[in-house]
């Protein structure tokens, strides 16, 4: 097959993202339940964070000019975090702690480890400069500025930031509703005995796990029989319930590959056959107004196609921003024998060799060997029409980055 018959990966991703329709439905959830959700509106800062100058350390508040003579300073007060602000008497120090509000008149905090206590006073060991160990009001966030923008995926640090500006309830986009349809008369649910020619339906569980990681809600999960009319009816029913339909199998060129045929006959097929290995027979189209992402049937091809092509589309549908990762450039601990017209995604992981960090490839890269993906921690990219020699830099994407 000529390379002109295949869609390059970047072109395919651009095609998918351009056709994504971001979710507009929103809901309010408690901050404690907001992890991995996507903000549905901008959040601005209602008041300075921190609200007042405070101490970054346990120690003593002083006026730096009072230390010029090197004489001991008496301690005139004590304040802890959350207590009323004190006023520093000239020529004295105030004992304070991390988070304590800086007393009026003080312009520096001396870390307690740099102080010698003598009776009711202290002697400072070392130089003191104005502003040292003071966290200024508004240092983190200033009133009126943007704290977090709509489209931000909420991680633990975003939860903390929202909490720091007093947000108890968060406006987030509704979860993307996804229908998962696996194809093949040979598929059997785990737990059931296998008959002649049958295999267990592993793709269903791979997809359920991937969609859970992606923050989606699965509203339909069924196996499709290898029959044209049954496939059509199930796709139409799924289109009425879901924001997105994901299928595995049924999009190649065989007589029993009905998903692609139904898209062509009853919907729209706008993308098919990619310059990707694994993942060439991936398809994209619509049934009615509902997008259909048709993944290949081989287990590893399902995983790779979802991560590389499916995740950018899902992120765009979720209204997310700033989610494109660049991978890492790491020397290859493997080589390839001949170039391919397709971009190869090699199941791989980091390892330490004689020359340091390298990327090691699983020895069997067949798209049916799912155990290779369990061994691996990510994907190494072999570009089109390229061979890799030992030590050559390769782009490596961890699974965590691909699913971020």
TrEMBL record:
Superkingdom assignment: Bacteria
Pathway: Cofactor biosynthesis; molybdopterin biosynthesis
Top EC category: transferase
Family per similarity comment: Belongs to the MoeA family.
Entry keyword annotation includes Ion transport: no
Pfam hit, one: MoCF_biosynth
SUPFAM superfamilies, A to Z: MoeA C-terminal domain-like, MoeA N-terminal region -like, Molybdenum cofactor biosynthesis proteins
The keyword Repeat is annotated on this UniProt entry: no
Positions of the MoaB/Mog domain: 179-316
Record's function text: Catalyzes the insertion of molybdate into adenylated molybdopterin with the concomitant release of AMP.
Record's catalysed reaction(s): adenylyl-molybdopterin + molybdate = Mo-molybdopterin + AMP + H(+)
EC number: 2.10.1.1
Species of origin: Marinobacter salarius
CC cofactor: Mg(2+)
Entry keywords, A to Z: Magnesium, Metal-binding, Molybdenum, Molybdenum cofactor biosynthesis, Transferase
Name used for this protein in its record: Molybdopterin molybdenumtransferase
SMART domains recorded: MoCF_biosynth
């Amino acid at each position: 097959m000529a390379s002109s018959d295949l869609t390059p990966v970047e072109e395919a991703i651009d095609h998918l993202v351009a056709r994504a329709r971001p979710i507009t439905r929103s809901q309010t959830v408690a901050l404690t339940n907001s992890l991995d959700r996507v903000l549905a509106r901008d959040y601005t800062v209602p008041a300075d964070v921190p609200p007042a100058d405070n101490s970054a350390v346990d120690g003593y508040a002083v006026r730096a000019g009072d230390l010029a003579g090197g004489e001991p300073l008496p301690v005139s007060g004590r304040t802890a975090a959350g207590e009323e602000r004190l006023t520093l008497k000239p020529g004295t120090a105030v004992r304070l702690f991390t988070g304590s509000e800086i007393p009026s008149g003080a312009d520096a905090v001396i870390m307690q480890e740099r102080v010698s206590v003598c009776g009711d006073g202290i002697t400072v060991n070392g130089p003191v400069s104005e502003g040292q160990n003071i966290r200024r009001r508004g240092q983190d966030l200033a009133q009126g500025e943007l704290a977090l923008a709509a489209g931000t995926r909420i991680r633990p640090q975003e939860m903390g930031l929202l909490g720091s500006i007093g947000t108890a309830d968060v406006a987030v986009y509704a979860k993307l509703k996804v229908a998962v349809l696996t194809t093949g008369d040979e598929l059997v649910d785990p737990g059931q005995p296998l008959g002649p020619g049958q295999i267990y339906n592993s793709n269903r569980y791979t997809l359920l796990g991937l969609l859970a990681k992606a923050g989606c809600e699965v509203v339909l999960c069924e196996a499709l029989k290898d029959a044209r009319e049954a496939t059509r009816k199930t796709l139409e029913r799924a289109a009425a319930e879901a924001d997105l339909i994901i299928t595995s199998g049924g999009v190649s060129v065989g007589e029993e590959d009905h998903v692609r045929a139904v898209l062509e006959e009853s919907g729209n097929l706008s993308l098919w056959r990619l310059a990707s290995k694994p993942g060439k027979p991936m398809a994209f189209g619509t049934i009615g107004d509902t997008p259909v992402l048709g993944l290949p049937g081989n287990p590893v091809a399902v995983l790779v196609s979802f991560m590389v092509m499916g995740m950018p589309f899902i992120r765009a549908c979720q209204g997310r921003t700033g989610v494109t990762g660049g991978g890492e450039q790491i020397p290859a601990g493997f080589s390839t024998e001949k170039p391919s017209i397709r971009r190869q995604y090699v199941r791989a992981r980091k390892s330490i060799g004689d020359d340091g960090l390298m990327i090691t490839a699983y020895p069997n890269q067949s798209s049916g060997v799912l155990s290779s993906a369990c061994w691996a921690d990510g994907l190494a990219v072999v570009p089109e029409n390229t061979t890799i020699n030992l030590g050559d830099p390769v782009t490596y994407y961890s699974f965590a980055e691909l699913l971020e």
